[in-house]
Amino acid sequence: MEPHPTQRQVTGWIRINALWPHKRRVEPPLRDSSPRPTAVRSAVGLRRELSRKSDGLRDTPENLITPSGALLRWWRPDEPWHRPRLSTSTMVRCMVQASPEPSRPIGTAVLIHGCWGNPDDWTWVRRPLEAAGVRVETPDLPTHRSPHATLDDDVQLVRDVIRASTPPVVCAGWSFGGDIMSLAAVGEPGVTHVVFVASVPYEPSTEPMDASWIDADPHVLVRTDGTYGIDREWFVAEVKQQFSGEVLDHLLRKPRRRVAMATATTPPTAVGRLTVPKTVLFGRHDDGFPEDLRRSTEGKVEDVRYVDTDHFIIFHEPEAVARIVLEFLNPLDHSRAKG
Which residues are registered as beta bridge partners of 91? Predict the structure, then answer.
């Protein structure tokens, strides 16, 4: 006798679309020829398994919270489904779709956030990359978490992330993150390309670092704990004029962080020549890069590109950044583009 669908052992990887009882709209499953048994499982057991959903679960290919509140999760079950007790007050309905095991990622994108920023600033670049099968790493720089951290600490963290990543690795650094990337990617065989987003390759100097810009900027505040940050009231007023929707919500919910003063006063000791191929992506309206600096960069870097926006490229033009990363994770597409 054929077992009930809820008792059938499901082999391989499956995708679960879990919906809590108070949600009414069910996300439709993907269309393919895979079997689609429908299972209903006790809310107690499933809530325990998916309890991390309420603990700030990140949007990754393994754990993706959809706009309707559903949780898509790759999961390999170790035991068969059991026939549930059909009680609407205690049940969670799940659409279970048998699918092949997720394919090996095509590589890793290591994305380094900017000054005062945080890893979630890359959310809109991360999404298309993960949708294309790229593993994405967004390290949280130590100088943004401790007033005693240094640039060397930032470099070491990013280097550790690179070494733990599945090659090939393409790194992208936004603004200050480009400086850290310039140092961390030196001599790393897994790194095949680096992308400077609203930044330029870091050039080590024996001269003392010039931190006078901090005192000169009325919107940058120095704290007594050895950090400096942006005037929050000014920042909130600015972002409300420039952004809307999801990006604005993010910037208001994730305020800019204080940064260790050592980032502006203590030069890094981990220096070296970055020989890996580079791409520089400028915003045409970025006031931080005058025309002479752009022309100088074009003379030093073979691949310099422009997008019609300002310094905040990862918020205004995230697809442009994602396309460049994918271009260099897929050598065939890159060779066709050059041809």
Answer: 42
**CA-to-CA distance for 301 and 279, rounded, in angstroms?**
7
Token couple for 70: 């559903």
Please state the pTM of the whole predicted model. Answer: 0.69
pLDDT tens-place string over residues 254-297: 989 999 999 999 999 877 889 999 999 999 999 999 999 999 99
124: number of Cβ within 10 Å: 19
> 103 falls in which pLDDT band (50, 70, 90)?
low
Q: Are 66 and 72 in contact (CB under 8 A)?
A: yes
Q: How far apart are CA 115 and CA 310, in angstroms?
A: 16
Q: What CA–CA distances, in Å, run from 208 to 9, 121, 202?
A: 66, 30, 15
Half-sphere exposure of 114 (CA within 13 A, CB side): 16
Q: Is the dihedral of CA 289, 118, 170, 316 positive or negative?
A: negative
Residues 117, 200: Cα–Cα separation, whole Å: 18
Domain boundaries, the chain: 13-99, 108-338
Locate 56 and state its tokens: 């700030």
d(CA 183, CA 203): 10
CATH topology of domain 108-338: Rossmann fold (3.40.50)
| Host H or E run for residue 93 | strand 91-99
